[in-house]
Amino acid sequence: MTGLQDRLTPEQIDEFGRAMDEIRQRVVADLGKADVDYIQNVIKTQRGLEIVGRGLLFAGFLPPAWLAGVSALALSKILDNMEIGHNVLHGQYDWTRDPALSSQRFEWDLVAPAQNWRHSHNYIHHTFTNILDKDRDIGYGVLRVEAAQKWHPYYLGNPLYAVLVAFIFQWAVMLHDLEFDRMVKGERKWSETAEARARMLRKASRQVGKDYVLFPLLTGPLAPLTFLGNATANLARNLWAFSVIFCGHFPAEVESFTEEETENETRGQWYLRQILGSANITGSKLFHILTGNLSHQIEHHLFPDIPARRYPQIASEIQEICRRYGLPYHTGPLHKQLFSVAKKIIKLALPDAVPGRPPAATTLNAKEEPEAA
């Protein structure tokens, strides 16, 4: 685990890990009514926005009503997916014993089945965060987002693939669980996806039926406008979720790791990897709510099962600990992070400038040993 040990001494890594554990224990001990009230209020707001949005589409022949309806519906879907669904499915509210907030029972307004997502995201991504060939969220099996990923002519389409993924993001999240990239490599058989595909078909059928058949039909002659309104709301949600998630994982300064570096990883080293492999987005309180507090991606990767509303409360403390140990704390406004991600995707579409040259700054010790490159 040379790379991680190069950042801090073993003693410092242990101290760092204990500091993170102490923050976690303090927050968990303080969970209570305020956290339940918060998520219940968000749920009420989300449901209210959906009712208002769908109601306004009944008056969709009036352009202002159509636009207001689509906006309300889009906000409803964003809250459902980001601040409610994502966080509830992480088990952030399992401690309440409320069936409506159970990670095992909750289902979101998304074509991706919650059961499939919990495995690919909660387990694989959050266990193996940014470990090449382990974390399947690195490029989602479609994009080249790390220089350590071997270049292939296929990646010339990197920018186009990224735009496509952004527009169909909910479908990309669903199809991600089929692991087509592993099938191409012969590591997975189509027959092994039968159960996952069955869940996808059931869930996608319900979502498509609701948004593009049932609700349009309910508005009678306005069905085409309602269909378009639902499609627009889904598109807005897709683009927003894509932007937030990619800005938290793929800006230029975010690091990736090899399996060798993370072998026999200690708790402190796991925390360190989360810090180095994530990035935050600055913004207002409302902005953070609309991102599901994934604008605090660093804190989320450190403590994925702690209610996300707590991340802003501990962010400054995490940042101070990083300063104390000389560790980076990647953060910046949305436009800056988006530009960094876009620049990286375009750059990595092209073959490496010097054939055979090791990729720069893709591992923890790459910046510290430039002469080795």
From TrEMBL:
What domain of life? Bacteria
User: Which residue windows are transmembrane per the record?
Assistant: 160-178
Keyword vocabulary terms for this entry: Membrane, Transmembrane, Transmembrane helix
Q: Which PANTHER family match?
A: ACYL-COA DELTA-9-DESATURASE, DESB, FATTY ACID DESATURASE 2
Q: Where in this chain does the record put each Fatty acid desaturase domain?
A: 64-331
UniProt-listed Pfam families: FA_desaturase (PF00487)
The molecule here is called Fatty acid desaturase family protein
Record's keyword annotation contains Endoplasmic reticulum: no
Q: Does the keyword DNA damage apply?
A: no
InterPro entries in UniProt: FA_desaturase_dom, Fatty_acid_desaturase
